[in-house]
Amino acid sequence: MYKTSSSGDRVFFGLTILLTILGLLSVANTSAPLAVTVFNDPLFFVKQQVVWAILGFIALIAAYMTPYTLWKKFAPHIFVGTVILLILVLIPGFGSKLLGARRWLSIGPASFQPSEFIKLALALFFAWLSERNAPIKYYAWTLAVVSGLVMLQPDLGTTITIVTMGFIQMFITGFPLLTLGIFGGAGAISALVLILTSGYRRARLISFFSHETDPNGTSYHVRQIVLALGSGGLFGVGLGQSKQKQLFLPETATDSVFAVIAEELGFIGALALILLLSYFCLRALKISKNAPDKFSQILSAGIAVWLGGQMFLNIASMVSLTPLTGIPLPFFSYGGSSLTMILLSVGILLQISRHGAYQEPSSHLADRRARRHHSPRYHPSIKKR
Q1: Which of 192, 325, 362, 372 ranks highest by number of CB atoms within 10 Å?
Q2: Is residue 339 situated within a structural domain?
């Protein structure tokens, strides 16, 4: 027997609210020095992030109220539309170039990153393919095209995230490990070639292996992160007391937000943050495990892996387990496109959790039937009045 919840995973929703509030406080804290220097307003960045958070929760509520089966119907159209946006961002005059990367499209005063949209769009499309038992070549070509477009921006962190998400969805779909290993090996070789043929990515790889290579150039970012982490110690220097966020550490409110948190709250605070984000991802995986059908299972697994993989990649690059990739930390990094898409995806997960079913143990089912049989209400000798 199966039971359906009418309200969804309340714990997951509560975690989302908590992480969003903590993320806004983090943006306000880490971005203040830069906001004062550039805009003469310490709250400039957090004001924008609050607007995106409000829009994100509107999207969350809308997704929660929309039957998840509707996403199945429009999954191919959403995917094709997002791929078109990825192409437009590479065309001068459409895409905006900043710090050597072409990742933004602008509509009036607002700008957004199509690479944030493709994460959900790809998860939807792979779930759609899975339900139709499509052959693996469709997955492989799709992943190759999307990865290529994102790498051209260039955005190695997002590429790694979507490739990981795609492979996990393919694995859950049921494709053989050997086949996935062959495709994975080919992808790894292609990624290595792209890294070695790009001066920017090659410099980051070299600085990862040797922080002393160019201390005032390519290794500067890594060295400042190490200083921030080391200064934090066990309990941190105190909330709001970071020295590295005073324009010493690059990208304090985006890519490097974890380093500032670790400096101010220390190892204990950083560990608490990791545990909180990990629990959030585990709840998302639980929704996937209890999903009512194949489409919702593959889709929710893809979203969970996307968020978990992005969390791991950001923090791993901060503690020098991986080279710097420039990917935001979910909820905590400044960025409207990222936060809005995360909250929209949470709404989809909550909608799926409303229909998440569990199998009632047979012993409990037998006991319930026995109680019903012996209840006077159901006794055959008692007639209805």
Answers
A1: 325
A2: yes
Q: DSSP letter string over 87-135? A: HHTTSBTTEEEETTEEEEEEETTEEE-HHHHHHHHHHHHHHHHHHTT--
| Tens-binned pLDDT, residue by residue, of the chain (385 aa) | 334 456 778 999 999 999 999 999 999 999 999 999 989 999 999 999 999 999 999 999 999 999 999 999 999 999 999 999 999 888 877 766 665 566 777 776 667 788 899 999 999 999 999 999 999 999 999 999 999 899 888 788 888 899 999 999 999 998 888 888 888 787 778 777 766 666 656 666 665 556 555 555 556 777 788 888 888 889 999 988 988 888 888 888 888 899 999 999 999 999 999 999 999 999 999 999 999 999 999 999 999 999 999 999 999 988 878 877 778 999 999 988 899 999 999 999 999 999 875 443 434 444 444 454 444 444 444 444 3
Tally of domains in the chain: 1
Is 380 a domain residue?
Answer: no
Closest listed residue to residue 172, CA positions, set 214, 198, 139: 139
| DSSP helix/strand/coil, 308 | helix
- Which sign does the torsion angle of CA 194, 200, 203, 204 carry? negative
Q: Is residue 363 one of the residues assigned to a domain?
A: no
Residue 207 lies in a domain: yes
pTM of the model: 0.85
Q: DSSP string covering 34-86, please?
A: HHHHHHS-TTHHHHHHHHHHHHHHHHHHHHHHS-THHHHHHHHHHHHHHHHHH
